[in-house]
Amino acid sequence: MINHLISKVNDANHQTKELCHVYIRSCYQPGQCTEETSTEEEDLFQSIINKCAPDDKHRIRRRLHGLLKYIDSRLKDIYSPTLDLSNK
């Protein structure tokens, strides 16, 4: 499911970032999604994470936080691209 998020980064940065936040919250506070706000994908991730060992949850959280940093860097480049002044 995380690989699916990674593949969606190029298409929908904001949506992927939001879903990444949901996944991270699921790692820290399982069972927090309600029926009104959760999607099938969120429910599935939450059910999977609940079955993981603590070490696996830690690795998953690290991977999700890394993905979130990557998304933030992409969004930063989109809204405030760095200028290349080396040619002047």
Q: Terminal Cα separation, in Å?
A: 45 Å
State the assembly state of the protein chains.
single chain
Q: Helicity, in percent?
A: 55-70%
Shape: globular
Overall CATH class = Mainly Alpha
Largest β-sheet summary: none
Overall mean pLDDT stands at 80
CATH T-level topology? Methane Monooxygenase Hydroxylase, Chain G, domain 1
Strand residue percentage = under 5%
**How many distinct beta strands?**
0
Radius of gyration: 16 Å
InterPro entries: BAG2 (IPR037689)
GO molecular function, one term: adenyl-nucleotide exchange factor activity
Descriptive report:
The chain has a single domain, classed as Methane Monooxygenase Hydroxylase, Chain G, domain 1 (Up-down Bundle). The chain has four helices and no strands. It has helices at 2-8, 13-28, 40-50, 54-79. The chain is globular and about 40 Å long. The model has no long low-confidence stretch (mean pLDDT 80). InterPro entries: BAG2 (IPR037689). GO terms for molecular function: adenyl-nucleotide exchange factor activity; protein-folding chaperone binding.
Describe the SSE topology.
Blueprint: H1 2-8, H2 13-28, H3 40-50, H4 54-79
Helix pairs in contact: 1-2, 2-3, 2-4
In summary, what is this structure?
With 88 residues, the chain is mostly helical. It is built from four helices and no strands.
